[in-house]
Structure formats: C-alpha cells, structure tokens
Amino acid sequence: MAKPPFLVTDQRWLLQYTWSVTKNQPRTTARPRLDPTAVVNAALELLDEKGADAVSLRGTAERLGVRMNTVLWHAKTKARLLELMAEAIVAEVRFSDLPEAPAERVRELARRYRRSLLAHRDGAAVVAGTYAAEPATLGFADHVVAALLSTGLDERRAAWTFWSIQYLTLGLTQEEQALRASDEEHTLGPALADGSYPALDRVARHMEDTAFDERFEFGLDQLLRPLREAEEG
Q1: Can you tell me the mean pLDDT for 29-50?
Q2: What are the CA-CA distances from residue 148 to residues 28, 59, 105 (Å)?
Q3: Which ranges does the entry annotate as DNA-binding region (predicted)?
C-alpha cells in the first residue's frame, strides 16, 4: 500500500492503511509493577541458593529479569538490600500461641528467632551484619523485652538480657551455618597437641561439640535461670 499523502480525505483508505501498519506489530504485555517484596524475595532466593557472598544488586536484577535501576529504586545500596532481607527473615517469627509464663515466653521467642535464621542459608550472618530498625525487627525485640520486664527485671537488666539472648542466638547459629557450608574439618587437636594449653585440651571435645540445639538450650538456661527462679520464688 502506498504511503499516505500529507492530507487524507478518504476515511476508508486511512483505516486500511492504519490496519496494514499495525497488524504485524508484536503485541507487548505490560510488565507487572515491581514492588519491594518481589525484590527482597528474589534476593532471598539468591541467598538460599548461593549464600551471602553471592547476594548483590546486579544478581537480584538478573534474577528478576529487570534492569539494575529497577532494583535500585527499592534498595539504593547493597547494605540497604541486606537490611531489607534481614527484616524479611525476622518477619517470619510468629507471636501466636506463646507461653503465659514470661521466662518461658522469652525462651520460645528465642527458639522461633533461631528457626527463622536457620530457614535461610547464611541467615544469621545476614541479620548479624545489619542494623535494621524496621517494624518486624523492632516488633520482635519489643515482645522479648516486654516479657523480660514482666519477670520483674529493671529496665537496664531487661535491655542487657535481651542483648545477651540476641548475641547467643546469632553467634551460635552463625557458627552452625558456617560449619555446614565448609568442606574443611575444624578441630583444635593440632593446635593443642604440644600441651601448651592444658585446660583447653581437657575440654576440647566439648568445645568442638556440634550439638547446636543442645548448646543453644544450655545457653538459654544460664540466661533465664534467675528469671525462672524469681517467678517460682
């Protein structure tokens, strides 16, 4: 069909021309609007598959099939992306069906927190490496501190006991996940063989114990025993 003149007066010809131009053009499907949740979920999938070292803004964009600028709209830096990931991990902690006794409530919250970290490869490393003052993170802390205050602790002891529980949970879980990911055998044996550290040599088999659940419960017992005794007394 010939190119239309500058001024077209034949309406039927104009309709035919328009149809001939557009009929062979590929149809485009509008891409759904990307929201922050999709970005964080893609980053968490990358984390679970390849570990924390593989998480990046570019890798997240590639996984989503979008340009990096699209991801940058929701997370300006890798540090911010990690904060959002940490928040999503902590958001998996549920607050329903908790024990009524405050000390046992703290214990159960710590257990649920640990499970949320273990649910993601390098989850503890991601959370430990961020400072996410976000709703889920603050909400978890508020529930634990409220339970600690309910045991009769003053404000400072409640705050510091919370941090002790936090450090126990993050540190032990991070050790567990790092050990799982490593192909190397970690043992104190060679370093203690010459007898220079007799006390460590005596307890070495306990230092290297990989019963992480038992170690976690032991640590909680030490932190919560005074609270439980106060409740019972």
Answers
A1: 85
A2: 57, 41, 9
A3: 56-75
CA 232, distance to chain mean position in Å, is 36
Spatial separation of the C-alpha atoms in residues 45 and 70, rounded to whole Å: 18
**Per-residue pLDDT band at 30 (split at 50, 70, 90):** very low
pLDDT tens across 122-142, in order? Answer: 999 999 999 888 999 999 999
Length of the chain: 233
- So what's the pLDDT on residue 196? 92
What is d(CA 146, CA 168) in angstroms, rounded to the nearest whole number? 19
HEC per residue, 4-59: CCCCCCCHHHHHHHHHHHHCCCCCCCCCCCCCHHHHHHHHHHHHHHHCHHHCCHHH
Residue owning tokens 């390849």: 50
Closest-CA residue to 70 (of 79, 58, 88): 58
- Answer whether 0.90 is exceeded by the pTM: no
Q: Mind listing the domains of the chain with CATH numbers?
A: 36-76 (1.10.10.60), 90-232 (1.10.357.10)
The two tokens of residue 123 are 């989850």
